[in-house]
Amino acid sequence: QVQLVESGGGLVQAGGSLRLSCAASGLPFRLYAMGWFRQAPGKEREFVAAIRYGEKTYYADSVKGRFTISRDNAKNTVYLQMNSLKPEDTAVYFCAGDRTTAQGMGVSPHPDYWGQGTQVTVSS
Questions:
Q1: Which of 37, 56, 94, 115 has CA atoms 20 to 30 A from the CA of 44?
Q2: Nearest Cα to 114, choosing from 24, 40, 43?
């Protein structure tokens, strides 16, 4: 049984930082691209960032230079470091896993697995 469990969300002021974590179990973690998506109220879910072992990371234009995705294969965990947060970053953030490339996850996302989501709220 595959599980992706996110943590680290919360309330932060604009300009602040948060680090999200996603602990994965039940899948061959090293073989999977892992990504972060987000969904704001009234909007569709959108891609944020993805990483696959041995490949370059891939980011949405809206977060480039502010967010950093990383992974620890020994801990089966993927992270999203979010700096210089803006109110428009407010959303539920979801972790996802897919047997594709990091770029593929961003260009044509069809993840095999999703986490339950963690709320990030950025106040102005």
A1: 56
A2: 24
